[in-house]
Amino acid sequence: MRTAVIQGHITATVKHPSFHGARLLVAVPESDDVAPQVVIDNLGAAIGQRVLISSDGAEARKMLKDELSPARWSVLGIIDPEGAVTP
């Protein structure tokens, strides 16, 4: 798990079938050792918001309801300005 900031939305005309209808965002981890990641978001995170992301692929595949999905990263919570996490 890592904290990250949402930088933008992903738009793709060609994508894995499991991603159809999913909200895909670019999340920039706050640690310097990790590159920006494409994350699945079911919580409605906005650009500029701090979020908690996970690389647990099994959880991402559960969100998409597809055990064969190549998904890996997902948003687990939105961090409010006071530091509390909303799941």
What do you see in this structure?
By secondary structure, the protein is mainly β. It has a domain at 1-43. The chain is built from one helix and six strands; from the N terminus they run ββββαββ. The protein has a six-stranded antiparallel beta sheet with strand order 3-2-1-4-5-6. The two termini are 14 Å apart. The relative contact order is 0.26.
What's the helix and strand layout?
Layout: E1 2-9, E2 24-29, E3 37-40, E4 50-54, H1 57-64, E5 74-79, E6 85-86
Antiparallel strand pairs: 1-2, 1-4, 2-3, 4-5, 5-6
Helix vs. strand class: mainly beta
Distance between the termini: 14 Å
Percent helix range? under 10%
Whole-number mean pLDDT: 91
The backbone outline, from C-alpha atoms, is globular
SS element count, helices: 1
Task: Tell me the radius of gyration.
Answer: 12 Å
Count of individual beta strands: 6
Taken in chain order, the helices and strands follow as: EEEEHEE
- The largest beta-sheet arranges its strands as 3-2-1-4-5-6
| Major sheet size, sense and barrel closure | 6 strands, antiparallel
Low-pLDDT runs of 5+ residues are none
Residue fraction in strands:
35-45%
